[in-house]
Amino acid sequence: MAKRLSPTFATKEMRRPLVAVDIVVCAIRDGALQIVLIRRAMPPFEGKWAIPGGFVLPEETLDHAAKRELREEAGIRVAGEYLEQLFTFGDVARDPRGRVISVTYLALIHGEGIEPRGGSDAADARWWPVTELPTLAFDHAHILAYALQRLRYKLEYTNVAYSLLPGRFTLSQLQRVYESILGKRLDKRNFRKRMLSREIIEATSERQAEGAGRPALLYRFRARKPVEL
């Protein structure tokens, strides 16, 4: 016989928590790894900077909610760009409004020329270098630290850097992407040898249009979609 729930248990213990999505958007801009933050326009944490996100509507999938919130709060549309579900954060006290479980996403885009704009419940939106971040609302500092660590790991076993670069790029540009994410300088000769040996990029017949001396050869990723090495 199935166990019968008491009225007290049914009304108190089975109250459904709210589900939210938070999206860490990364790009390489001005030679540095930067993320999109929004300034909250309402409580809690009114006026504080936060990762774009919001509550999932009853009729939508998690992916759809992530794309919608990013579009509404920061004016950024994600279609063919890299978007990955990362982790679920569910600390009981993470939101002062009540029990909120957040499904987090990592979005990687080629951010040159893309300027966020505040909308929905966001008073402002802008790019921030990861080395110059303000104090963040909720547990977003923890979420961001987790996302950045995952991104660093992914450089080791996937071709994920493709999503942060244009279709054609120099090896120097590729190296700057790795250095910006890893937060350290890399030996030029060893880096190039390693990247070419992994066979995830290939040379084109084109060269960089400008630059001192002989224009650098342009490369491209063999696949502009996620591939494990």
Describe the protein's architecture and organization.
The protein is of the alpha+beta class. The protein has 2 domains: 17-155, Nucleoside Triphosphate Pyrophosphohydrolase (Alpha-Beta Complex); 161-221, Arc Repressor Mutant, subunit A, CATH 1.10.10.10. Helix content is 27%, strand content 28%. The strands form 2 sheets. Strands 1, 2, 3, 4, 5, 6 and 7 form a 7-stranded mixed sheet that branches. Strands 8-9 form a two-stranded antiparallel ribbon. Strand 2 and strand 3 form a beta hairpin. The chain is elongated, with a radius of gyration of 21 Å. The termini are far apart.
CATH T-level topology of the largest domain = Nucleoside Triphosphate Pyrophosphohydrolase
Specify the overall morphology. Answer: elongated
Number of domains: 2
* Helical fraction: 25-40%
Question: What is the H/E string?
Answer: HEEEEHEEEHHHEE
Number of helices: 5
Give a quick precis of the structure.
This protein has helices at 7-13, 62-74, 140-157, 171-182, 188-198; strands at 18-29, 32-40, 49-50, 53-55, 82-89, 100-108, 122-129, 201-207, 217-221. With 229 residues, it is of the alpha+beta class.
